[in-house]
């Protein structure tokens, strides 16, 4: 993973960010009529029915639908779900007359929602002399088969293509058997261009100064809770910031994992709007010059109410120096812990481990023009087991080829692989000794003879250092072994496939050496 496509983890949360932003945009973007996907929106029509009296008591909030965040149905394991019969939409609700003293912002909102949506409220008041700032309580939005309730809605600067600010409190809906509730949603500086054909806007067409969502709760199939979501600076060529805090989900269909918790997720410095738009159009994803980061803390996975594993800290940071993705970056995954789940429980017991604990770190560099990629000091360490290290340098991987996953022109310049044993190899020998009733010293000599025989060939003196290094490690005379690959000249992937499967020939073509410590 290089710094340039450091945003290779960019797909993570992008759909969530866009969905939240465009959910707010629904206030200013008229939906297509139900039952006619892709049809042009109907012309707004003013309702005529009698509304609830102004100042009346607000009705108790009933659950409402998040149109922009559809929730999946859950199917019990091993059960094939039959296609659901289409539910015929109920008749449109009776239109509502506009009260003579209704604030202008609310009347404009009716027109934007369209005649297929009925807006009603218990009370409304203008908060300025022009009625462009308005507050409603006991709000209900109804469409055939759908119902949304909101305890309070405040509108400021509502336009045909967006809103200066809106605050929604006590949002609730039910969708596909899942109840969705939001404590508070604030959207500021939203602009959603209206297209002539009525098509939905692209993510990079939308601009949003800020979004704040508090206390999202989804109950039904898989239960989800999110304490806080914030988005700042959404828009093309803008470095956006995303924060998600207090995530908890239960009832997941993940095998031995059925629940998770995440303390915090953060993204900054990424042009999320253009990235998501390019991905949807299957275009090359652009890079924004500057500092970027993606981090997560406090991941905990559970199964049957018991811990399964987790990560204390996950962080990717990059310094992008050109729009072609050139730059440097770092990766760190710390506090990894995997409990003895069924897949590995027996293996851990045999090796004498209670759990796996470790960390992963690396630094990277990428030159988008020359295609040079460096993965430096990739380290995978497991406590009381050992540390695997790796580095590799390639060229021929320009930004265009990386985006297209085209490795046909990639060439290997150098590589290194190392392993420092903390106790894993010794535990392996002890386990083999117990199960085969063979002394450990005898097992070491058997493995050393096998490695020596495989790397001993006539007229292949260059293999001797490699063979001797491996034999020393197996016999316990060294605790670490390092193998390096330095071909006399860069070698392409196709050329490597043509190298005869002979240790001597591979050593000659790839320049393989080994040392111990």
TrEMBL record:
Biased amino acid composition, Pro residues: 49-67, 85-102
Name of the protein: Uncharacterized protein
Region called Disordered, residue ranges: 34-102
Biased composition (Low complexity): 34-48, 68-84
Superkingdom assignment: Bacteria
UniProt keyword annotations, A-Z: Signal
Coiled coil: none
Organism: Neoroseomonas terrae
Presence of keyword Signal: yes
Signal sequence coordinates: 1-28
């Amino acid at each position: 993973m290089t710094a340039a496509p450091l945003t290779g983890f960019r797909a993570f949360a992008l759909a969530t960010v866009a969905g939240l932003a465009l959910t707010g945009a629904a206030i200013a973007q008229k939906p297509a009529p139900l039952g006619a996907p892709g049809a042009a929106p109907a012309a707004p029509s003013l309702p005529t029915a009698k509304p609830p009296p102004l100042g009346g008591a607000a009705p108790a909030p009933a659950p409402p639908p998040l149109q922009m965040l559809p929730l999946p149905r859950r199917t019990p394991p091993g059960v094939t779900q039959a296609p659901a019969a289409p539910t015929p939409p109920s008749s449109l609700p009776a239109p509502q007359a506009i009260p003579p003293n209704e604030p202008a912002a609310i009347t404009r909102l009716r027109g934007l929602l369209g005649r297929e949506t009925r807006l009603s409220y218990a009370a409304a008041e203008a908060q300025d002399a022009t009625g462009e700032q308005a507050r409603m309580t006991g709000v209900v939005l109804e469409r055939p088969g759908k119902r949304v309730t909101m305890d309070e809605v405040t509108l400021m600067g509502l336009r045909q293509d967006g809103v200066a600010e809106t605050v929604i409190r006590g949002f609730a809906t039910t969708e596909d058997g899942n109840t969705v509730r939001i404590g508070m949603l604030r959207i500021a500086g939203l602009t959603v261009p209206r297209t002539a054909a009525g098509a939905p806007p692209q993510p990079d067409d939308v601009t949003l100064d800020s979004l704040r969502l508090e206390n999202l709760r989804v109950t039904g199939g898989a239960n989800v809770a999110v304490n806080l979501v914030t988005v700042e600076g959404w828009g093309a060529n803008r470095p956006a910031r995303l924060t998600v805090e207090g995530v908890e989900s239960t009832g997941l269909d993940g095998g031995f994992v059925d629940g998770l918790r995440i303390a915090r997720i953060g993204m900054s410095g990424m042009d999320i709007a253009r990235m998501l738009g390019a991905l949807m159009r299957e275009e090359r994803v652009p890079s924004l010059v500057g500092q970027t980061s993606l981090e997560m803390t406090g991941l905990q996975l559970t199964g049957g109410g018991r811990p399964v594993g987790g990560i204390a800290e996950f962080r990717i940071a990059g310094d992008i120096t050109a729009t072609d993705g050139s730059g440097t970056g770092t990766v760190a995954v710390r506090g990894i812990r995997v409990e003895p789940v069924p897949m590995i429980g027996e293996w851990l017991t045999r090796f004498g481990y209670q759990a796996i604990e470790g960390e992963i770190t690396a630094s990277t560099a990428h030159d988008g023009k020359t295609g040079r990629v460096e993965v430096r000091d990739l380290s995978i360490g497991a406590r009381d087991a050992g540390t695997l290290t790796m580095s590799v340098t390639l060229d021929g991987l320009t930004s265009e080829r990386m985006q297209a996953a085209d490795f046909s022109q990639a060439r290997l310049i150098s590589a290194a692989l190392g392993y420092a044993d903390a106790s894993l190899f010794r535990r392996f020998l002890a386990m083999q000794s117990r199960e085969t009733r063979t002394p450990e010293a005898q097992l070491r000599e058997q493995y050393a003879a096998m490695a020596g025989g495989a790397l001993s060939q006539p007229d292949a003196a260059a293999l001797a250092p490699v063979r001797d290094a491996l034999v020393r490690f197996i016999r316990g005379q060294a605790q670490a072994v390092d193998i390096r690959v330095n071909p006399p000249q860069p070698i392409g992937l196709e050329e490597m496939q043509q190298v005869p499967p002979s240790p001597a020939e591979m050593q000659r073509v790839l320049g393989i050496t080994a040392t111990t410590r």
